[in-house]
Amino acid sequence: CCRKLCAPFCPGTRPGLGSTGASKLPAPLVALLLGRFKASTVKECIRAVLKEKLADVQYVPEEIPQLTKSLSEIIKDRLKEQGFERYKMVVQVVIGEQRGEGVNMAARCFWDADTDSYAHDVFMNDSLFCVVAAFGCFYY
Fold it and tell me: Which domain holds residue 8?
């Protein structure tokens, strides 16, 4: 976030606000935070979309780019319906062929731990695996 604009509200930029400073924020900002990112709700939404859209899908390399884009747009639209108006949603979708091998994924983010969060879910069938991560960044 922009430190000049957010300085009065960001943890560590005002005396008395530590990592648990959300309860000491000004009343208007606390009201905005009531609609905060709920990882459990987001995970349920991701899981429902993946089950609905990938249940009978076979891995076809030529179709994967369009499928990943489509899934990310559908998930973003469903998350917007959940009432996270003050959040910028970033949805990452990775699809790979299921060959019985392992895969490791990681993500690093620079954000406000009091307001920003993420949720992820994994879907697998006999042909493919899909990993979705949804990041919610609060707009101040």
Answer: 1-34
